[in-house]
Amino acid sequence: MKKILLAFLLLSTAPQVAAQEWKNDIDKALREAASINKKVMLFFTVSEQCDNCSALDRNVFRSEEFRDYAKENYILVKIDFSQKPTEELTDKMIEKNLLIIEKYNKDGFFPLVVILNKDAKVLGKAGVYKDESPSQFVKMLRNF
Predict the structure, then answer these.
(1) Both ends of the chain: CA-CA distance in Å?
(2) How far is CA 122 from CA 4, 7, 43, 67, 125, in A?
(3) Most buried one in 8, 75, 99, 134, CB count within 10 A?
(4) What average pLDDT is seen over the chain?
(5) How far does Cα 10 stand from its chain's mean position?
(6) Within 13 A of 5's CA, how many CA atoms are on the CB side?
(7) C-alpha distances out from residue 7 to 4, 10, 17, Å
(8) Mean pLDDT across 84-88
């Protein structure tokens, strides 16, 4: 019994490292955003072929500062056009993503970050990544 209690205490006081995960279904993300009063952040990327996309992901989106801010404010959706169909990203989802890019990224810029309200209205866009720090990027997002 003491071992179980000790294990419970250790687990309950351990730091939480749960990072918010990127989703790939905008409809589910919008429903979730509406239910918990958050915005949706769309990240259009071609991760395997776009150095700026990779740099934005690595330098900003993986930072603790961004993760903390995003966790409080956004449901994250990644639309990655370099992925091939997988169990999570089926041919049907890829077709749906093409419709999403037609609606929110007509010019086909990568990377592109689009902030939507819970009703799918565009609140702002962040285009070309110019090596902004996580603080600079979060400050820009707050202006949307």
Answers:
(1) 52
(2) 50, 47, 13, 21, 8
(3) 75
(4) 84
(5) 31
(6) 2
(7) 5, 5, 18
(8) 64
Distances (CA, A) of 31 to 14, 36, 65, 122: 32, 9, 26, 16
Tokens 């990568």 belong to 110
Pairing of the two strands 74-80 and 39-45: parallel
CB-neighbour burial class of residue 127 (10 A; exposed 0-12, middle 13-18, buried 19+): middle
Give the tokens for residue 15.
């730091």
Nearest residue to 21 via CA among 29, 30, 10: 29
Helices then strands (H, E): number in the chain? Answer: 6, 4
Helix or strand run (H / E) with residue 27: helix 26-36
Residue 109's identity, in one-letter code, is F
**What backbone torsions phi and psi does residue 50 show, to the nearest 5 degrees?**
-125, 105
Residue whose token pair is 């077709």: 95
Query: How long, in residues, is the chain?
Result: 144
Written as six digits, the tokens of 4 are 């179980």
